[in-house]
Protein 1
Amino acid sequence: MNIKDKVIVVTGGAMGIGRALCQRFAQEGAKAVIVADLEFEKAQQVAQEIGGLAIATNVANEKDIIHLIRQTNERFGPIDLFCSNAGISIHGGAETSDDDWEHIWGINVKAHIYAARHVVPQMLARGEGYLLQTASAAGLLSQIGSASYAVTKHAAVAFAEWLSITYGDQGIKVSCLCPQGVRTRMLLGEDGQGENFLVAGSVSPEEVAEAVVQGITAEQFLILPHPEVLEYFRRKGSDYDRWIRGMRRLNAKTDGGKHA
């Protein structure tokens, strides 16, 4: 798909990968870029920079997703590309509270479901449309130090696969974005001085946006800003037990995910 002249929605568009996607889509000549985010003032700043529209959106609230889609339709027409990009991370294992599990599940998984529930029927009626699902390399591999992130990102990948399998022959294209370390607030922390072991091999949000544009142009399902992730994924599939042992070593090396 060519980005030029397309109507595009980006959730989590105020910062990080989402902001870089909005900026890049505007550079590519999109007809309209809708910056959807709970942090509305920051979303407005991005929208003003690129000539887009900011819409306050809590992606874990289905009514907000319905409002987002409706407002976009009314202002700009049918949505060509919906980017379910918003995501969060919560440190911890099985002891993570039920409230935190529900919170991350709502943003990292159910938000993708809500978007598909309400935008896919419109796309099917037109016989075309594109979904970009931002997951993570953690969805193909795992996440040291965060059980909830590993689980929800696996679920996000699974849902993206299901969407492509189910609707791919009906004109709906699906790409699943699975970056590893990206230099955003999630990786670096509020002060930008994060000690996460993924920092060393990290890429910028702009590099992720470049990979996305290339991936969407080629209509690839799996978009990997870190090409090495594909080799890790192959190793996991070829010898699962060996891969698990390697991940245990990484877990121990990083002090049980202390800095994950």
Note: Strands lie at 7-11, 32-37, 53-56, 81-84, 129-134, 172-177, 222-223.
Protein 2
Amino acid sequence: MPQRPKRLTPSRGPMDLFGSEVRRYRTLAGLSLAQLGEQIPYAPSTIGDIERGQSGCDRGFAEDCDRVLDTREALAHLHDGLFDGRSAAFPEYFAQWPEHESGAEVLRSYQTMLVDGLLQTPAYADVLLYGDQTKVQGRLDRQAILTREEPIPPRLVCLLPETVLWHRVGTAETMREQLLQLADAISPLVSVQIIPDGAPHSGHAGSFTIARLPGGELIAYCEGEPHGRVVDGRSEIERLNERFMDLSTYALPTDQSAALIRQTAEERWKS
């Protein structure tokens, strides 16, 4: 007996609404996921994820569905209205964070395994996002907040364990380029501080970023399983603040951190 399709909840957000419309038009056309996948360049599993609001998509997906499902460009029009080329780049659980990030006066970031997305090179991000250019561009677009003229860019303070410098993402050249850019990013508005390997600290509970908004309000984004989440509970944010302050006591000053980053780039990742 075939599994009953999951009930969709389009009121939950734009990705859910778009996905529910894809399923509605597909059902009206009498096509299964597999049959639609045979006529457009997307796997049935990918189409299913989009229908359930679990994955974003670019406008090309909407255009392909419009063509096969004879929707008179309804899905492309809906995609434009919902995403305007931006929101589809982010999964639903993350979609609210770029707005908080953009409005922040100060960002405090601790990353356990990877360079913070605001400081990633295109090649490094491309590997992490499996070549999905919509998501890569979305990540790179977020970085514009660090170089904008108005409003004043946020102050970014980023703490990284030294092991992040050793964790290979892509080729050796990708890593070398990423580390050199990371060191170059250090400025009066951007601090990158490395926690030396072996220093005892409380950062093993996971990556997080705390944003201080105008007026002093704090909001955070925490990585987790099966995915991350935005946190605004006062007690939880206080705990994150305390953890960040504790971690910072183990970190090298920015000048020593920059020297260590460059040394690692040349000694470990130079081809």
Note: The chain has a mean pLDDT of 88.
